[in-house]
């Protein structure tokens, strides 16, 4: 490995010499909140007179893996309509700036619309955004309270909730009216699932432009102070009298742009059709000349759209109105980068990196009297300056392109050929026994879901019909969908339990969606839905209870097994828990399911599963090197260990209570693990972590959607060479950063009169204040991960 690294370094040095300078120049940090300061300077009395540019853009087209979400842009404001799981990840991938959001509108208190909000709020808080307003159903306030059960107090960000009963909201771009719609005959006390909130958004009239030349021709006092009141008057549509002559606004001013409106409405089932169709607010906008509705966005299933009452209601908006549909029949690739990397990785080994499922249309589109446009990721409808659909940003997923790009990389084809040869010469997985357990990594990044790596989740298929999920960060279900395609219901049907290691958002906020989608899956499979055993810190209960009582019924889907009850020698508090543990072991053919406290946050656990056939799988959760884990995991067949940071960052690893690569490998060695898979990489290593000298034939690195079994160990450890060829550019950049840091460390050590201990000598750094610069935006703020 060392030799390979040196070659890479040489190559990178040569590359730089040719390009005369570093690969990428350091840019001064951008100010993400500049827009707020500009707004402050303008003051409250500032009246822009309507926005010049406004468009709506589909973030998520409504598919089962991504939900429906819409982004609205004007030069003054940015809005988001709905924020399900994975929306933040898509916004990151497609460069829709989260820090510019000042309003989030939610159409219904259902996990599909609010599942991504906890992660989004944590990110907004880190960005330093002082205020964000959430509009929509009344339970939003309680939802925020529920989030605090695991996030702690959300200090530093003012999260205002504007309930649907509040008067209309007005800013520089538009006025927004919330329209509450109650389902027929379903009104329930408290959390009220029967309420959806629709939004009628009315753009401000754009005043006309003053025509200077025409004004000069008419002899008006252009260029003097006297022109100002004249301009103001004609822009407001009033005529003026100048030197005894009446001047009409249309003589010196272009006509104003009317106050167009758009509507966002969710109609989740037939129960809402009549209330939507009879709603008085909508009626006022159907055939309204003053604020014609340019676009109606329908978040509704096909059976609602096909209903003749709903179709008549659509028609009443008139022939000029456009209709955009976001629902599960929309087929569109959203996570393009994830598809790209998986396509390229599958060139190395198509079984370990199986190609992702591409979404296909679920249902036939019903014949509609009203022309509708189906949502696609990044499709735009522009309202100003000109009303039109814009398809230039729509995602086009072209696997051939990804393949061609990889094949052009220097050394890539050769290293893949060498790899295949080496693997062929080695033992094949079948010779090594059963293809089970099969481990599918669904999320291998830490903290924030990013385009290449989603947050923590690992599926363990114990047998063809039994599986376990180790952690369950935001978007885990979406990852399952993209991995398994149409098979996802079957896989959810095999799920026997979920292990939640600790209550950081990157490990558990995907749980509710798994519970809800599992219910749906079992129904479609015609199987009964029993509560799913969830092994987790008891503190999870508070979050589930709050969400259940205030937002949406969920508790009947879960049987909580406190993780502490599975510690060695722990007492089981009740016969009920004992029964749950017993049936879980039996269902999974496990002889043992043990947990231990690890060195991370409070109540953080690792776990060890021992199968009746003899294999032992150990999962660290998040932790610094931990002796209790080493003891519990003795002689593990496979250790899955976090390796958040690269070697040399031991100090940061202590600060954030995580492990470095070599520390994680060391734990595997001390445990005498047969193989160690590294995961939970800091998102600063977007594609691939930095390889350390400790990499050997017993170590592998995990990627999202990677699928391995115990027999794959030789195949997996040999992957490093072709991976280095595939990601040479990224590695070069990271090595450059590491070199710079090494120089800084050495300089700091000299200044403090100490011996310069290079970051790569493997010795842990002493804790001391170093003038080290943050490596990436993620490391600026410490987010519990
Ligand atoms: Zn954590
Ligand atoms: Zn984490």
TrEMBL record:
Q: Which SUPFAM superfamilies match?
A: Metallo-hydrolase/oxidoreductase
- List each copy of the tRNase Z endonuclease domain by range: 57-116
Question: Which enzyme class, named as a word?
Answer: hydrolase
Query: Which compartments is it annotated to reside in?
Result: Mitochondrion matrix, Mitochondrion nucleoid; Nucleus
Spell out the InterPro entries in the cross-references: Metallo-B-lactamas, RibonucZ/Hydroxyglut_hydro, RNZ2-like, tRNase_Z_dom
> What is the required cofactor set for this protein?
Zn(2+)
Domain Metallo-beta-lactamase: start-end pairs = 466-681
The protein's matches in Pfam families, at most eight in alphabetical order, are given as:
Lactamase_B_2, Lactamase_B_4
Q: Which UniProt keywords apply?
A: Endonuclease, Hydrolase, Metal-binding, Mitochondrion, Mitochondrion nucleoid, Nuclease, Nucleus, Phosphoprotein, Signal, Transit peptide, tRNA processing, Zinc
Q: Which GO terms describe its biological process?
A: mitochondrial tRNA 3'-end processing
Under catalytic activity, the entry for this protein gives: Endonucleolytic cleavage of RNA, removing extra 3' nucleotides from tRNA precursor, generating 3' termini of tRNAs. A 3'-hydroxy group is left at the tRNA terminus and a 5'-phosphoryl group is left at the trailer molecule
The signal peptide stretch is 1-19
Q: How does it assemble?
A: Homodimer. Interacts with PTCD1.
Function according to Swiss-Prot or TrEMBL: Zinc phosphodiesterase, which displays mitochondrial tRNA 3'-processing endonuclease activity. Involved in tRNA maturation, by removing a 3'-trailer from precursor tRNA. Associates with mitochondrial DNA complexes at the nucleoids to initiate RNA processing and ribosome assembly.
Family in the record: Belongs to the RNase Z family.
Q: What is this protein called?
A: Zinc phosphodiesterase ELAC protein 2
- This protein's species is Panthera pardus
């Amino acid at each position: 490995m060392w030799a390979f690294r040196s070659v890479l370094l040489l190559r990178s040095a040569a590359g730089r010499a040719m390009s005369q300078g570093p690969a990428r120049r350091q840019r001064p940090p951008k100010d993400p909140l500049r827009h707020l300061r500009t707004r402050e300077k303008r003051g409250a009395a500032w009246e822009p007179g309507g926005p010049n540019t406004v468009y709506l853009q589909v973030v998520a087209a409504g598919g089962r893996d991504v939900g429906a979400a819409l982004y609205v842009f004007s030069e003054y404001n940015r809005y988001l309509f709905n924020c399900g799981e994975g929306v933040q990840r898509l916004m990151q991938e497609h460069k829709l700036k989260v820090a510019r959001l000042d309003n989030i509108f939610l159409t219904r208190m259902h996990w599909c619309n609010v599942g991504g909000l906890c992660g989004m709020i944590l990110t907004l808080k880190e960005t330093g955004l002082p205020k964000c307003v959430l509009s929509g159903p009344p339970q939003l306030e309680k939802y925020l309270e529920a989030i605090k059960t695991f996030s702690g107090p959300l200090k530093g960000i003012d999260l205002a909730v504007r309930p649907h009963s509040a008067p209309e909201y007005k800013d520089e771009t538009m006025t927004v009216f919330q329209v509450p719609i109650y389902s027929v005959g379903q009104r329930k006390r408290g959390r009220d699932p029967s309420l959806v909130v629709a939004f009628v958004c009315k753009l401000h009239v754009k005043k006309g432009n003053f025509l200077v030349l025409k004004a000069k021709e008419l002899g008006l006092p252009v260029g003097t102070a006297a022109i100002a009141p004249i301009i103001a008057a004609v822009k407001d549509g009033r005529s003026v009298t100048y030197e005894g002559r009446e001047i009409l606004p249309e003589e010196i001013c272009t006509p104003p742009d009317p106050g167009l409106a758009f509507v966002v409405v969710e109609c989740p089932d037939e129960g809402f059709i009549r209330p939507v169709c009879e709603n008085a607010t909508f009626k006022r906008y159907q055939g309204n000349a003053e604020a014609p509705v340019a676009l109606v966005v329908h978040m509704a299933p096909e059976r609602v759209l096909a209903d003749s009452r709903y179709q008549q209601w659509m028609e009443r908006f008139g022939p000029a109105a456009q209709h955009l549909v976001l629902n599960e029949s929309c087929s569109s690739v959203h996570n393009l980068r994830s598809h790209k990397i998986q396509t390229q990785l599958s060139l190395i080994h198509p079984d370990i990196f199986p190609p992702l499922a591409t979404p296909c249309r679920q249902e036939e589109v019903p014949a509609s009297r009203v022309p509708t446009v189906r949502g696609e990721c990044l499709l735009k409808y522009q309202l100003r300056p000109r009303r039109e659909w814009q398809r230039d940003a729509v995602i086009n997923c072209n696997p051939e392109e990804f393949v061609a790009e990889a094949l052009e990389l220097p050394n890539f084809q050769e290293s893949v050929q060498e790899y295949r040869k080496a693997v062929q010469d080695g033992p094949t997985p079948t010779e090594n026994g059963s293809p089970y357990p099969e481990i599918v990594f669904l999320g291998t990044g830490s903290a924030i879901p990013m385009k290449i790596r989603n947050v923590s989740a690992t599926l363990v298929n114990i047998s063809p019909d039994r599986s376990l999920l180790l952690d369950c960060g935001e978007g885990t279900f979406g990852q399952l969908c993209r991995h398994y395609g149409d098979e996802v219901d079957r896989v959810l049907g095999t799920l026997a339990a979920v292990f939640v290691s600790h209550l950081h958002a990157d490990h558990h906020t995907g749980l509710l969606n798994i519970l809800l989608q599992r219910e749906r899956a079992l129904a479609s499979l015609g199987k009964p839905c029993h509560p799913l055993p969830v092994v987790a810190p008891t503190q999870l209960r508070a979050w589930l209870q709050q969400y259940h009582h205030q937002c949406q019924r969920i508790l009947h889907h879960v049987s909580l097994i406190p993780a502490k009850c599975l510690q060695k020698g722990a007492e089981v508090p009740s016969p009920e828990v004992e029964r749950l543990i017993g049936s879980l072991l039996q269902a999974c053919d496990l002889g043992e399911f043990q947990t231990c406290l690890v060195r991370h946050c409070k109540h953080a656990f690792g776990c060890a599963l021992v199968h009746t056939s003899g294999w032992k799988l150990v999962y660290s959760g998040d932790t610094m090197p931990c002796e209790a884990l080493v003891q519990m995991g003795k002689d593990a067949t496979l250790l899955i260990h976090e390796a958040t940071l690269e070697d040399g960052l031991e100090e940061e690893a202590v600060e954030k209570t995580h492990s470095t690569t070599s520390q994680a490998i060391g734990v595997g060695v001390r445990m005498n693990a047969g193989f160690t898979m590294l995961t939970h990489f800091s998102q600063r290593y977007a594609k691939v972590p930095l390889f350390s000298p400790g990499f050997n034939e017993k170590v592998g690195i995990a990627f999202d959607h990677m699928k391995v079994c115990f027999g794959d160990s030789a195949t997996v450890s040999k992957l490093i060479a072709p991976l280095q060829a595939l990601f040479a550019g990224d590695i070069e950049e990271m090595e450059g950063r590491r070199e710079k840091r090494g120089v800084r460390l050495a300089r700091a050590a000299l200044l403090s009169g100490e011996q310069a201990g290079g970051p790569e000598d493997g010795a842990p750094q002493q804790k001391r204040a170093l003038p080290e610069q943050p490596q990436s935006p993620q490391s600026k703020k410490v987010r519990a991960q």
